[in-house]
Amino acid sequence: MTSTTPEDPSPAGTVTLLDRLVALGFTNSAFRRLHHLQRKAGITAHRSYCMGLAERGAEFRTHTNIEVHRRLEVVLGAYLGGAFKSRSPALWEALAGAAVVEVPFVRV
Fold first, then answer.
1. DSSP symbols for 45-69
2. Higher local confidence (pLDDT), 40 or 88
3. Which listed residue, of 14, 15, 54, 100, carries a Cα 20 to 30 Å from 4's Cα?
4. What is the pTM of this model?
5. Pick from 8, 34, 14, 47: which is nearest to 105 by CA?
């Protein structure tokens, strides 16, 4: 059975994380900072990709989207743990930058 908790690095878990973050004001510019495709990446496209996998019961095929999931966890944890209220794109971009430091891009 596929879990949909944020701690679950599955496609469904990633959708849950994205939904929570977007509700708090998470931006595409911040998402691009932490996604491996960067300039080509967008929240809506990534969410759709993850939903498609989840609906088929599939998992991520490579480590890159698991790393994206982990970075999203870092961003959400930092935002909630820091008790931030701002929805400023600058704040989200800073948190995304910190997430990349914590979960760096791995080139294989």
1. HHHHHHHHHHHTT---SSHHHHHHH
2. 88
3. 100
4. 0.89
5. 34
